[in-house]
């Protein structure tokens, strides 16, 4: 099974892009629902800012795809994709909503669940324009989110589970 997890905070403008990608993928899947054919084994999860949700949702899946916002100083709407191993980080305690993030979950999951944690992990990040309080994505990030939805569907098809539903 493939698990696609979107991370972020919808109340912080472009930070909600991972969640918006999950919503769009769910809507695409619902619009393609065909009850005469079996559904592919792909699940979509809005993890918000909860790294623990990522940790437990990944357990037992064959492929994990994580989508989140990035603030690296690049051009807003830029898309970065790489293997999960490049993003894994050991947990370091902090007092904020991002205390245990998805990158910490990747590291911990590999240590805790061992063979039950997916080896095939893909991280897709979208560079933000704004993380200010507010609802909605900037135009460049909204456009990038559509491209990321297309890319996630390509990844699902390439792994033999058929189109995302």
What's the SSE blueprint?
Blueprint: E1 2-7, H1 17-31, E2 42-48, H2 51-58, E3 63-70, E4 79-83, H3 102-113, E5 120-127, H4 139-158
Helix pairs in contact: 1-4, 2-3
Q: If you had to describe this structure to a student in words, what would you say it looks like?
A:
This protein is an alpha/beta fold. 33% of the residues lie in helices and 21% in strands. It has one domain (2-158): HybD-like (Rossmann fold, 3-Layer(aba) Sandwich). The chain has helices at residues 17-31, 51-58, 102-113, 139-158, and strands at 2-7, 42-48, 63-70, 79-83, 120-127. The chain has a five-stranded mixed beta sheet with strand order 2-1-3-5-4, sandwiched between helices. It is globular and about 40 Å long. The model has no long low-confidence stretch (mean pLDDT 90).
Quick summary of this structure?
This protein has 165 residues and is α/β, with parallel strands linked by helices.
Main attributes of the structure:
5-stranded mixed β-sheet; single chain; 5 strands; 4 helices; 21% strand; 165 residues; globular; Rossmann fold; alpha/beta; 33% helix
The SS-based structural class is alpha/beta
Query: Mind telling me which CATH architecture this is?
Result: 3-Layer(aba) Sandwich
Can you summarize the main beta sheet? 5 strands, mixed
How many domains make up the 3D coordinates? Answer: 1
Taking all Cα atoms into account, the compactness measure Rg is 15 Å
The helix content is 25-40%
Major beta sheet, strand line-up: 2-1-3-5-4
Low-confidence stretches: none
CATH class: Alpha Beta
- CATH topology annotation: Rossmann fold
Shape type:
globular
CATH superfamily (homologous) name: HybD-like
């Amino acid at each position: 099974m493939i698990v696609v997890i979107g991370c972020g905070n919808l109340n912080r403008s472009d930070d909600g892009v991972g969640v918006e990608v999950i919503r769009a993928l769910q809507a695409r899947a619902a619009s393609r629902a065909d009850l005469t054919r079996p559904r592919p084994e792909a699940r979509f999860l809005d993890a918000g800012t909860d790294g623990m949700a990522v940790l437990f949702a990944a357990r037992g899946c064959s492929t994990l795809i994580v989508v989140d916002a990035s603030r690296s100083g690049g051009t807003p709407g830029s898309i970065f994709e790489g293997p999960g191993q490049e993003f894994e980080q050991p947990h370091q305690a902090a007092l904020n909503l991002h205390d245990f993030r998805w990158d910490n979950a990747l590291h911990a999951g590999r240590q805790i669940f061992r063979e039950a944690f997916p080896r095939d992990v893909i991280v897709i990040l979208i560079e933000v324009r704004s993380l200010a309080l507010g609802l909605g994505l900037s135009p460049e990030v909204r456009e990038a989110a559509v491209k990321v939805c297309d890319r996630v569907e390509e990844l699902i098809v390439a792994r033999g589970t058929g189109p995302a539903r």
